[in-house]
Amino acid sequence: MKHSRLSALFLPLLAAACAAPMASRAPVAPVTVGILAINDFHGALEPPKQSVLAPDSKGDFMLVPAGGAAWLASAIDAARAKYPHHLTVSAGDLIGGTPITSALFLDEPAIGVMNRIGLDYSAVGNHELDHGVDELARKQNGGCVQHGARKPCQVEQFKGAKFALLAGNSFKPDGSTLFPATGMRSFGSGPSKVNVGIIGLTLKETGGLIPPEVAKGLTFADEADTANALVPGLKAQGADAIVLLIHQGGFTKGRPGSNSCDNLTYEIRQILDRLDTRVDVVVSGHTHWEYVCDYSAYNPAKPFLLTSAGLWGKLVTDITLEIDPVVGRVIAKRAHNVIVQSPSYAASTSTIQNSDLYPRFEPRADIAAYVGRYVAA
User: Fold this and answer.
1) Rounded-to-integer distance, Cα 142 and Cα 136, Å
2) Residue 14 pLDDT exceeds 90
3) CB–CB of 360/354 below 8 Å?
4) Residue pair 72/316 in contact by the 8 Å Cβ criterion
């Protein structure tokens, strides 16, 4: 009788004690992170009066007017709204090779636009170095020190980029990089916390694409070798996903459209074929082409998601990563290019009209007003 009473007392306590560890091992849901990506913006503050080739309703293709900083901001805002966790990134050439509205002012308004859009990271492209290392450092840090013939801070006191420039394979004579090689961003908390590592690279041929006086003393290392050397460090810091921003790209042939990837060619393929498979996404640029590629179709051993958003802010790439925080890796990834549809415009032989087949964005008022100040100036 005494034994039965003890059993009745302690068995519920034992069951509760066993249940606690089981509860602590409850499944943790994957964490979704949205990445909004651009490349080769080239200071296109106003709509460039250019278009994107897109499928129409009859199985053919049509031209859709696209671009302009205020419309780009609205497109990015709309994409971000889907994601509690998100990053906005660029694969380089935000500045340089720019229209007069940006170029006259040393591309300060292009940086100002990206600050307002909320860019987080950008790789250094070759055009970022058009006016030299010191001027690019001013773009990052702010200030009005003059480094060339053109006077800075003509419209406003320039405060510098709020986003981080990354230049992992661009080296000074002392062996240090021009800017940090990597970045890391964390999302969520507790068991659901995930870390996304970012690598930023330019193309190794940059030295031949910039003024000789700028290139003197700089070296640009192999892209794949550099990325592969950086991946273990990011993993050691706890990166669950790795995104490579690289100012090098490819071309496609055959079926057109910003989300196709037929017959991918050019330098990016040689890089990807040697790249560490722990990289999950490669955001590319430089070729001014547009594509979304499952690279495993070209090399099954290299299952990268490869993207490019063309140029001039005509597209923004909407990338979705599903990250398992328990095993610490990406379990699903997908992307598509969103047309930054802006007002119709008169071309040489016709008017390029808007289309209701694709989202129509209103210009974001604060950025339209900011751009307007530089247009007036």
Assistant:
1) 10
2) no
3) yes
4) yes
From the list 355, 336, 343, the residue with the least C-alpha distance to 79 is 336
User: Which pLDDT value is given to residue 254?
Assistant: 77
**Residue with the two structure tokens 């773009």:** 139
Q: Is 79 left (phi over 0), alpha (psi -120 to 50) or beta?
A: alpha
CB 195 within 8 A of CB 239: yes
Helix (H, G, I), strand (E, B) or coil at 82: coil
Length of the chain: 377
Mean pLDDT, range 283-302, rounded to an integer:
98
Provide the Cα torsion 62, 97, 102, 66; round to 10°.
10
pLDDT tens-digit readout, 36-67: 999 999 999 999 999 999 999 998 999 999 99
First to last CA, the chain: 96
From the list 8, 71, 149, 99, the residue with the least C-alpha distance to 360 is: 71
| Other beta carbons less than 10 A from residue 32's beta carbon | 17
Residues 6 or more apart whose CB falls under 8 angstroms from that of 118 comprise 76, 88
Distance CA 31, CA 173 (A): 42
Q: In what order do the strands lie in the sheet with 315-324?
A: 164-166, 121-123, 86-90, 31-38, 315-324, 329-339
Q: How far is CA 324 from the centre of its chain?
A: 22
At 76, which helix (H) or strand (E)? helix 69-80
142 sits in the region (left: phi over 0; alpha: psi -120 to 50; else beta) called left
Indicate the angle between helix axes 365-376 and 69-80, nearest 10 degrees. Answer: 160
Three-class secondary structure of residue 207 per DSSP? helix
**What mean pLDDT do residues 324-331 have?**
97
Enter the pTM of the model. Answer: 0.92
* Residue 10: per-residue pLDDT: 45
Q: With the C-alpha atoms ordered 166, 169, 170, 174, is the resulting torsion angle positive or negative?
A: positive
Helix (H) or strand (E) holding 337: strand 329-339
> Do 240 and 278 contact (CB within 8 A), yes or no?
no
Q: Which two tokens stand for residue 105?
A: 């002012």
In whole angstroms, give the CA distance from residue 288 to residue 292.
13
CB atoms within 10 A of CB 162: 15
Please check the confidence at residue 20 and state whether its pLDDT lies above 60. no
